[in-house]
């Protein structure tokens, strides 16, 4: 049984705008799955449907099902989903800028602090994954660099001890070196048994982190394959990247991802 199963999902905004049409995919327990596609393809809408945030954007599921751990989560309250094992890193590094790093992490564990054991143990793991945050614990989060803020956003989500981590464009606006660092950490998180559902424009990050990918175009799943195979397909690359340019760079990353 898949940890997350989305079947024939259709979503509209404002009762009129069709954002997703008959979208189906799954995330296995402990798996790492990428949702790929150009801007406007519907990737963020998928995450909103899974995380319970769709209603806050005037969206609604009009057909299909979303199940987590075998139970329907359609229209479920977002806070209950966090307590039940789903955490999301929103696009744009939505941290509490006026709070310290330590307080941001503490806030991340609030929904599950009474049910999931010692938060100190979880925080220790977060600081092991992101050592720089340990050096900044008492600093206001707004003074962190962009890369450090993204690390904090991921760390805060991990404080909820999720079984499934949703990531919306974690590489946005970051230097390639920082993206690589975050990619390594996401691999380690997945190695800890946390399933990942990644939405990102970065081909390199998708190749590094995910094992299977689904390509969305205008609200439809049009291709699905192991990530390296998906991005090796010239037609898929043209759709995903919007151009045939840069094929050599993409191919180099694909070869790196499959080399022993």
Briefly say what this structure is.
This protein is α/β, with parallel strands linked by helices. The protein has helices at residues 43-51, 78-84, 101-108, 119-129, 131-135, 146-158, 176-191, 203-209, 227-232, 234-241, 247-258, and strands at 4-13, 17-27, 32-36, 59-68, 71-72, 86-89, 164-168, 195-199, 212-217, 220-226. The protein contains eleven helices and ten strands.
Feature tags:
10 strands, 4-stranded antiparallel sheet, alpha/beta, 6-stranded mixed sheet, 11 helices, 260 residues
Distance between the termini: 30 Å
Structural category is alpha/beta
Strand content: 25-35%
Count of distinct strands: 10
User: Helix segment count?
Assistant: 11
Radius of gyration computed on alpha carbons:
18 Å
Oligomer: single chain
Low-pLDDT residue intervals, each spanning 5 or more residues = none
- What characteristic shape results from the CA principal axes? globular
What do you see in this structure?
By secondary structure, the protein is α/β, with parallel strands linked by helices. It contains 11 helices and 10 strands. The chain has a 6-stranded mixed beta sheet, with helices on both faces. Helix 7 links the parallel strand 7 and strand 8 (195-199). Helix 7 (176-191) runs parallel beside helix 8 (203-209) and helix 8 runs parallel beside helix 11 (247-258). The mean pLDDT is 89.
Question: How are the SSEs placed, and which strands pair?
Answer:
Elements lengths: L3 E10 L3 E11 L4 E5 L6 H9 L7 E10 L2 E2 L5 H7 L1 E4 L11 H8 L10 H11 L1 H5 L10 H13 L5 E5 L7 H16 L3 E5 L3 H7 L2 E6 L2 E7 H6 L1 H8 L5 H12 L2
Parallel strand pairs: 3-8, 3-9, 6-7, 7-8
Antiparallel strand pairs: 1-2, 1-4, 4-5, 9-10
Helix pairs in contact: 3-6, 7-8, 8-11
């Amino acid at each position: 049984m898949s940890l997350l199963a989305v079947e024939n999902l259709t979503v509209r905004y404002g009762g009129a705008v069709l954002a997703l049409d008959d979208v189906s995919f799954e995330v296995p327990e402990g798996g790492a799955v990428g949702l790929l596609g150009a801007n406007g393809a519907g990737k963020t809408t998928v995450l909103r449907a899974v995380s319970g945030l769709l209603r806050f954007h005037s969206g609604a599921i009009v057909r299909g099902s979303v199940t987590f751990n075998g139970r329907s989560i359609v229209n479920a309250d977002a806070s209950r989903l966090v307590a039940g094992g789903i955490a999301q890193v929103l696009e744009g590094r939505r941290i509490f800028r006026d709070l310290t790093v330590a307080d941001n992490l503490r806030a991340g564990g609030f929904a599950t602090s009474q049910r999931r054991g010692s938060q100190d143990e979880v925080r220790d793991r977060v600081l092991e994954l992101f050592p720089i945050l340990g050096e900044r614990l008492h600093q206001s989060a707004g003074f962190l660099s962009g890369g450090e803020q993204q690390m904090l956003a991921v760390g805060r989500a991990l404080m909820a001890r999720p079984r499934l981590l949703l990531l919306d464009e974690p590489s946005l606006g970051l230097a390639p070196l920082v993206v690589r660092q975050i990619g390594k950490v996401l691999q380690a998180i997945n190695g800890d048994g946390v399933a990942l559902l990644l939405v990102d424009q970065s081909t390199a990050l998708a190749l590094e982190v995910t094992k299977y990918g689904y390509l969305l175009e205008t609200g439809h799943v049009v291709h699905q394959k192991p990530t390296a195979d998906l991005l090796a397909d010239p037609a898929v690359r043209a759709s995903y990247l919007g151009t045939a340019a840069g094929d050599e760079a993409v191919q180099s990353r694909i070869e790196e991802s499959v080399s022993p």
